[in-house]
Amino acid sequence: MKISARNQLKGKVVEVVKGATTAHVRIDIGGSIVTASITNQAVDELGLEVGKDAYAVVKASDVMVAVD
Q1: In the chain, which ranges are continuous DSSP H helix?
Q2: Number of domains into which the chain is organized
Q3: What is the pLDDT of residue 58?
Q4: Nearest alpha carbon to residue 49 among 29, 67, 23
Q5: Scanning 5, 22, 36, 67, which has its CA 20 to 30 A from the CA of 50?
Q6: Angle at the Cα of 58 (from 30 to 50), degrees rounded to 5?
């Protein structure tokens, strides 16, 4: 598969928590955790489970930065 997004972060799934319709998928990217909210159907179709390799793909037009 090829994709146009350039921000592709490879990691391992460390947690999948399904809700009523939406799941939270946590991916360990070299010690940092990225969390994605996706549909339960997408989790099933992708075969996501703990220990499986996966990519966090970030496609955004804006990045916000904040400090205290």
Answers
A1: 40-46
A2: 1
A3: 86
A4: 23
A5: 5
A6: 50
Whether 27 maps to a domain, the answer reads: yes
Q: What is the pLDDT along the chain (68 residues), one digit of tens a residue?
A: 788 888 899 999 999 999 999 999 999 999 999 999 999 999 999 999 999 999 999 877 677 778 88
CA distance 24 to 49: 12
Range of the domain at 13: 7-56
Residue 63 lies in a domain: no
In sequence order, what are the residues at sequence separation of 6 or more whose Cβ sits closer than 8 angstroms to the Cβ of residue 31?
A: none
Q: Is the residue at 40 inside a domain? A: yes
Q: CA-CA distance, 68 to 54, in Å (whole number)?
A: 33
Residue 34 resides in a domain: yes
